[in-house]
Amino acid sequence: MSVHSLRGFRDLLPPDSALFTQIEAAAREVFALYGYQELRIPAIELKELFVKSTGDTTDIVEKEMYAFTDGGGREVAVRPEGTPGMVRAYIEQNLSQTGRNAKFFYIGNMFRAERPQAGRYREFTQIDAEHIGNAAPFADAETITMLVKLLEKVGVAGCSVEINSLGCAECRKAYRQTLLEYLRLNVATLCEPCKGRVERNPLRALDCKIDGPALAEKAPRLSLCPACAEHFAHTQELLKISAIEYKVNPSLVRGLDYYTRTVFEVRTTALGSQDAIAAGGRYDDLVKSMGGPAAPAIGWAMGVDRVALLLKDKTKIDGSPAVYIVSASAQAQSQAFRLLAALRAENISADSSNLTLSLKSQMRSADKSGASYALIIGEDEIKAGTVAIKPLKEKGEQTTVPVADAPSHLKQLLRG
What does 142-155 look like in DSSP terms, one character per residue? Predict the structure, then answer.
């Protein structure tokens, strides 16, 4: 039997793993600037959480969610997205009572049984940001600005921001009936999934990958109530103050039922037709609908896998040690090991192979390591209290320095 990974799942190897770490580190820096705190949520929740929050007619719930009955007879699911778990934690842990701004971020893996394609896997890493309890357009503009600044920080170029407003529950109540009447007249032209959704949730047809583009052109448009129109206009003014370039896209609806008012996507043409690398919006009614206090909210999610794919050929990550230690004799092994510890204590990255191997074998490993210098210790060096420093990347003479001076001497060499 051959052992292999499941389709849509993968091992993340160096240097890709280092690139993921770099993106996540940049996110943490940006979140700190904007006053966000980290919240870690479970990988498995009750299935009902996602059905109730995400919507029972969404692709996630209908086709993509990994759900099963556990040993205790509970219907559970591996998280397909982060927002429901974040909101559940906000309610369950009484985070509205802390007296602080409820700004949280989450970095972790999500799971969806969808068709694998470029930058999209069944297990993928997502960065989520959620701002709960602020109904003002300032929160909308700040949230979108933070996302753009993060993408700029990690080096993603050529992105476009698209925004729209889905209105509030009152706006959509009248629109739902208008859209339903239109879809009933044109039901024969819809795909099979949409035909089954028309009566239950007609708005879902607008986000259908098959019918959505055509409906965006032909179906009646949503009219915003005065309050929602003012909110959307003010959000745009604030985005201009933040120097964020954006485009209003009336066809942008997003795929989850909980969104209200502002929705947005950041797109790039570099990945082909599946071009959204981050998206989000307001969900002003979700917290209350899940049993919590009335708490308007806005958030977004960014696919780290897709961002990493954009940066892979542009970002050079060298995980090589600066120095490689080589023992030239059996008597020098302990001294070589001691030198490794001394260099690391001075924050100089250092490594070695098996110090009991032959000098030739260790030097071969040193050449392959990518290190800038090899430090060689043999019987002569032990007697003299010195270490030999051999350049590995550039031409240069091998030099000898006292062992005690090796860390400071190497720092000078590494600074160039």
Answer: HHHHHHHHHHHHHT
Nearest residue to 134 (alpha-carbon basis) of 94, 100, 184, 174: 100
* Helices and strands counted in the chain (H then E): 15, 16
Size of the chain, expressed as the number of residues it contains: 416
The residues, ordered by sequence, that sit 6+ positions from 411 with a Cβ below 8 Å of its Cβ are: 346, 348
Digit-coded pLDDT (tens) for 32-91:
999 999 999 999 999 999 888 876 656 667 668 888 999 999 999 999 999 999 999 999
**Nearest residue to 353 via CA among 338, 335, 366:** 366
- DSSP single-letter state for residue 330: G
Question: Which residues, in sequence order, are CB contacts of 336 under 8 Å at separation 6+?
Answer: 325, 326, 327, 352, 355, 375, 377
The CATH fold of domain 323-414: Rossmann fold (3.40.50)
CATH code of 16-167+224-311, in short, is 3.30.930.10
Q: Where are the domains of the chain?
A: 16-167+224-311, 323-414
Using DSSP's 3-state secondary structure scheme, residue 192 falls into helix
Strand pairing category for 260-267 and 247-248? unpaired
Q: What is the pLDDT of residues 115-133, one digit of tens each?
A: 777 667 899 999 999 999 9
Hunting for tokens 């580190």 — which residue is that? 25
Burial class (CB in 10 A: 0-12, 13-18, 19+), 333: middle
CA-wise closest residue to 276 among 223, 207, 210, 224: 207
CB atoms within 10 A of CB 98: 10
Q: What residues contact 238, with CB distance under 8 A and at least 6 apart?
A: 137, 138, 140, 141, 142
Put the strands of the sheet holding 350-352 in their side by side order. Answer: 350-352, 323-327, 373-377, 386-391, 399-402
